[in-house]
UniProtKB/TrEMBL annotation:
Protein name per the record: DUF2851 family protein
Matches recorded under InterPro entries: DUF2851 (IPR021272)
Species annotation: Zobellia galactanivorans (strain DSM 12802 / CCUG 47099 / CIP 106680 / NCIMB 13871 / Dsij)
Length: 437
């Protein structure tokens, strides 16, 4: 098959990020380049890759027909995509000096009707690169990720560095949620911690329900009850709609219900927007009753919890802070009115690890970022002490020879899988780009 015919076949599955890759890493033939208009073309400077809005590469220098132009480069699979994206109406594209496309299907003009020189890239690409690219995205024999046949042989040093970058990328992705909570709370970090902890205590099944509870209950009200675990529990259970069963005749339940009715009137509380937590498919230690009691006891033990959490610089300190258990009633109960075998409902180290991974370290990261302080090394030290997480994604990477040593690396692999592998962003991944290079 001729090269041109093979190239035509590749365009069926081609993505625009391949064009970015080819340009960024200079993977095209650089001699005898010509624009679609027939002018000679020489690339002096490829420019800087732009990952934000606007042209794809800034500050390039291109010699076209003997004249040097300085400006930006925009890329598309087809020339006509320029108009599909309405760039002719956007002043940000007025300084585009070269339109790099895979297929030139028509002339393109700036807003002032001046013609933009076009480079049709497919004429200058080695067939071998396209074959490698095609094999990377060939899903026929893929069970997990595109590069599953090659990732196990990837350079260990590069992988370690990439995983550390991915971990902080995961922290950054969580930062948006934290700063959104901060904005909603009028910059009240205590409220942010309270709401974020509730979400963490709810885990996957009740995270959303507990989050709605945090959004409805002002921490300033909750804090007023910190001298009484009973009053804190009544607020949490009541707001979570866990005190609405009139058939329960348990004395503790009845007293909680009375206390919540009093506090609801006193503070003008509304639980209308709070989602009732679920018990279904949960192991009894994770029942919302037990988790909310543990949270109440945590705040009863630490009057200045936010300060302690933010100041903790080691995993040992954090374990000490979260060394709490549910109230005595829950030693013999998982739900109201039904006795069970007596056992203290203490926060396990595994559960505390999850809180540190998903709540405490992201919060510390955001608080430091808010204050303009760098605590990245401290965060790395703590997360590296936590055991790796066990889930299907981490297990599948392990089968391919990428076995995480700790929670930092298992978190990074989750970011890799969800942010790159499932999105087919192989050319934005260190593994994918190195395979092509």
């Amino acid at each position: 098959m001729c090269i041109n015919c093979a190239l035509q076949k590749q365009i069926v599955s081609m993505r625009e990020d391949l064009l970015h890759f080819i340009w960024k890493y200079k993977k095209l033939r650089l001699s005898d380049l010509r624009t679609s208009q027939g002018e000679s073309l020489s690339i002096i400077d490829f420019g800087r890759h732009n990952h934000l809005a606007g042209p794809d590469f800034f500050n390039a220098q291109i010699d076209i027909g003997g004249q040097v132009w300085a400006g930006n480069v925009e890329m598309h699979l087809k020339s006509s995509d320029w108009y599909a994206h309405h760039h002719e109406q956007d002043t940000n594209y007025n300084n585009v000096i070269l339109h790099v496309v895979w297929e030139d299907d028509g002339d393109v003009f700036r807003k002032d009707n001046s013609l933009i020189p076009t480079l049709e890239l497919r004429k200058y690409i080695p067939l071998q690169l396209l074959q490698t690219y095609q094999s990377l995205f060939d899903r026929k024999n893929v069970h997990f990720i595109n590069c599953e046949k090659d990732i196990g042989d990837f350079d260990d040093f590069l992988m370690k560095n990439w995983l550390e970058r991915l971990y902080f990328e995961r922290l950054e992705s969580k930062a948006g949620f934290v700063f959104d909570l901060l904005k909603k709370s009028n910059n009240d970090w205590e409220q942010v911690l309270f709401t974020f902890l509730l979400k963490g205590f709810g885990l996957k099944i009740n995270g959303a329900a507990f989050l709605s509870l945090g959004a409805a209950l002002e921490f300033s009200i909750f804090r007023k009850q910190q001298d009484s675990i009973f009053q804190m529990e009544s607020l949490l259970f009541g707001m979570a709609h866990l005190l609405e069963d009139d058939t329960v005749l348990d004395d503790y339940y009845i007293e909680l219900k009375k206390e919540y009715a009093y506090q609801k009137r006193k503070y003008g509380l509304s639980d209308a927007g709070v989602q009732k937590p679920d018990f279904f498919k949960l192991r009894p230690p994770n029942f919302p009753t037990v988790r909310l009691s543990q949270l109440a006891n945590l705040y009863a033990m630490h009057q200045s919890l936010f300060h302690k959490v933010i100041s903790a610089i080691s995993l040992e300190e954090l374990y000490a802070i979260f060394n709490v258990k549910a109230s005595a009633y829950w030693d013999s109960h998982y739900t109201f009115g039904k006795e069970s075998r007596k056992k203290a409902k203490k926060l396990t180290s595994k559960f505390v690890d999850l809180l540190v991974i998903n709540v405490i370290l992201p919060l510390q990261f955001c608080y430091a970022k808010h204050r303009g302080v760098d605590i990245n090394e401290q965060i790395i030290e703590v997360i590296s002490e936590i055991k790796k997480e066990g889930n299907t994604v981490v297990s599948n990477f392990g089968k391919m020879g990428i076995a995480p040593l700790n929670a930092k690396e298992s978190q990074a692999l989750l970011q890799l899988y969800n942010g790159y592998c499932t999105q087919n962003k192989c050319l934005q991944c260190v593994v994918g780009t190195n395979l092509l290079r």
